[in-house]
Design a protein that fits this description.
The chain is α+β, with helices and mostly antiparallel strands and 117 residues long. It has five helices and six strands. Strand 5 and strand 6 form a beta hairpin.
């Protein structure tokens, strides 16, 4: 299984899952109940993850890209704000002390930049 999508918005995750399943691609929601049981940890973990079978990864990514193009510009601007402002990477994690204080300081794993979301 390959993770192809990650978000803290469980509603958006459900829509993406429906889009893929309507195209015949089986999906599995990982960390589905984290939002309900421990909502604070969802912000730090990056949210729930959607995984598909390895052989369906390419097809799923194409469908996902097509779907995300149709999402309104307001949601796109929200998604773009969840990227490193320096390099545009989505590979970041909470800064160590941010877990205990404030909760919105992040460090990019690619370029090392520190930023807030």
């Amino acid at each position: 299984m390959k993770t192809i999508y990650q978000t803290s918005d469980i509603g958006q995750m459900t829509v993406v899952k429906s889009v893929l399943e309507s195209a015949g691609i089986n999906c599995v929601l990982l960390d589905e109940y984290t939002q309900i049981l421990r909502p604070a940890t969802l912000q730090f973990s990056g949210g729930g993850r959607l995984a598909v079978e390895d052989e369906k990864e390419e097809e799923a990514l194409e469908l996902l890209a097509d779907y995300l193009k149709t999402v309104n510009t307001e949601e796109e601007s929200i998604n773009n704000s969840s990227k490193c402002p320096e390099c545009g990477s989505t590979e970041y994690e909470p800064a160590f002390w941010s877990v205990f204080f404030n909760g919105n300081n992040f460090k990019c794993n690619k370029c090392g930049a520190k930023f807030k979301i």
